[in-house]
Every structure is written in C-alpha cells, then in structure tokens.
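Researcher: Go.
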Amino acid sequence: MHLNFPQRMFKIANKTRWLIMLIVVLMVEIFPQQGISRIQIYVLISLAAIYNITIRFIPWQKQWQDGKGYPICYAESTLDIVFISGVIFLTDGLKSDFFLLYFIVIIFAAVYYNSIRCFFVTTCISLLYILIGILTSPTYMDMLPVFMGRLPLLFVIAGFSSYLTQEIKAQSAELAMEKEKLQALLATLKVNLKEIEEKSKALHELYNLSLKIGSTLSLDEQLSIIIDVTRNFLKADLTTVSMVDEKGIELRTCVSKGMFSGGILARDRIKIDDSLFGNVIKTGNLLIIDDLHKAGEYSSGQEMSSLIAMPLKIEDNTIGVFSCAYVQHKKFDKDDVNFLELISSRAALAINNAKLHEEIRKLAITDGLTGLYNYRYFQENLRNEIERCKRLKYGGLSLLLMDIDHFKQFNDLYGH
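Model: Structure:
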C-alpha cells in the first residue's frame, strides 16, 4: 500500500518510541540517581510498550485514506507527552536531561499537523513542564532560570520543524505530481510501443506480400492479405476493395472484411455516379469524410462514422477504390494517408499483374483472328474429358468435328 509522508512518519514514530524507551532504560541503569523510582519508570515504559504493540494492529491506514487520521495523531502526541513528562518528573524534575525528548514529540507534531496545531502541542508541553516544575521545585527562583532557558527553545524547535515540514511536504507533493506525469508518460509510451510493434509487423507482412505479388497466389488471396495488413495497421472496422467494371459504369466490391455496414457502403454493385466513391473514380483523388452521418444523400442508414478512400491507379487510369471505414469518429493523420497510399499501390499492382496473367493465358489458348479456342486448348480439354469419363465411369464420350467451307480463303484474307 502506498504511504504518504505523514503515514511514513507515523511508522517511524513507532520505531522511534522503542528507541526512546531503550535510552531511558540505559540511562536509568548506567547512570543511576538517588531518589529515582525504577519501578514507576518501568511501569511507564511498560505502558508505552503496550501501546506501541497495540497500535500496529489498528487499521490506521484506512482511517488515513478516509481523512480521519488526526485522532490517531492526537493519541500519539498525548501518549508521548505523558510518557516523557512522567520520566522527567521521576528523574530530576526540571533539571532532567530527558527534557530533550520533548524535541522529538514537537518534530513529529509538525509532521502530523499544521503549524497552528504544532504550536498548540508545544504550548501543552510547556504547561505540563511548568506543572512539573511547580511539583518538584521548592521556590519560584529555582524554576525561573530553567523556564527562561528551556521553554523558548521548545517554540524555536516548533517553528523550525513546522517550516521544514511544510517545505518537505511541498517537495513531496511536487514529486508525487512528477511521478504521476511519469507514470502517464510511461503508459503512453507503452501504448505507442505496442502500436509501433503492430505497425512494424504489418509492414513486415506488407513486405512479404510484395515479394509474393505476381507469384502463385491468386488475386483474391493477395487482396485478402492486403486487407488484413491494412486492418491491423489502421484498425479499420470495415475495409473494402472495389473495382470499376469493364464498361466503366458500375463499381463492384471485390473483397470486403470487417463489420457489416448499412447504407450505401453495404451495396456490392452500384453505379459510379450514385456511389460515394464517384469523385474518387472521376478525379483520382483521396477522399476523407470525418462524419458520414453528415454526408448528405449518402448518410441514410449509415452505421459507419468516418471514412477514408484511396484510388487504385494503373498509370493514370483509376481502376478501383481502396476504402477503410470506422464505427467511431476518427481523425486521419499523415501516417494513415501515407500507409493507405502505399498499400493501395500494392493492391493496384496485384490487380494489374492478375489482369496481365489472364490476358497472357487467354492469348495462349485462343486464336488471335477469330477469338476461338486453339488446337492446344482442344488437346488439353480432350485429355481432361477422357480422364473425367474414366473416373466417373460414363458410358462413352462423343466428339463432334465440323468443317467450315472456304475458311482458308477467310484466313488468307484477314489473317495475314
């Protein structure tokens, strides 16, 4: 449990009290004086020891947290004053060297209370010391020099202790504030470090993906990985890759991951002119909407609050849109834009490579003049069909051959 400055001093006072009792015992035994009642002194020490043991089992920490620590402090001060006064009374009255133990009580009073209460405790000590003088001194002339020398010293100690304690408490409060700031900074650094680690992992995945683009991965697999990397990096609730159709009229959703969204973002196919991404397709510029609920005609039925959309470009041609949507409002910074621009270029590259592979494959199996499948494709598919008939145990396989009259003349005319 965290202890503040007075609480720590309270524990120190408990240990100091044991030290005071030990000093009293040693002084009485090593430097015995005539007229000292050892039995009475040991009774006082025993009572103080019982208190010192008992106070350890009182849940004073909780009382201090509830703002009720003063009664315990009053009990501490009262016990110490009575104990030390009793020892002074029994060991030589006004001239007792145990008078110095009052300084310890005043110092702890300065810690426990404010300056006014500390001086009140000092006044009580002075009055009790005067009473001891009245009880132990035969004349006032014997008491006066002692009072003139010792009582002002008590108030000097009280003033100095109060000032020093206030300075220490002020420093302690400043240190506590600095500690809170450092803890908040540490928590922020931990969060930032976690984000950096996540972003570093996402960038590593992006690097690995860049190596795989154009390899055996299909387009859907590549786009799926790209979306996963983007969601991990930007913490998007909905990430979508949409493509412009061959006619350039509609926008079609290719891959989408995340929370279901209502409104216009939920449609798989939509005309570009009616789409939220229409301007992105037409201008090829980035789109950022901080509040989709204020997006005019596009806000109806919308579950997402913020949106960022980046055009997918091949050279100067916009072929689609890469978008990230968020349920909570989000302010997009430069890092978000830069990352989405980078990931969009990788997505566009993957799409372009897939299209090139498809075109090359098509050229390899079709006739350039007629667009019909060529002899190579016929041979491959005939072999596959024969194997399928054997595997499925069909009764037979039919093959129809057709001859086109005068096709050689057509080929000679248009094919060269």
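Model: The two ends are 94 Å apart (CA to CA).
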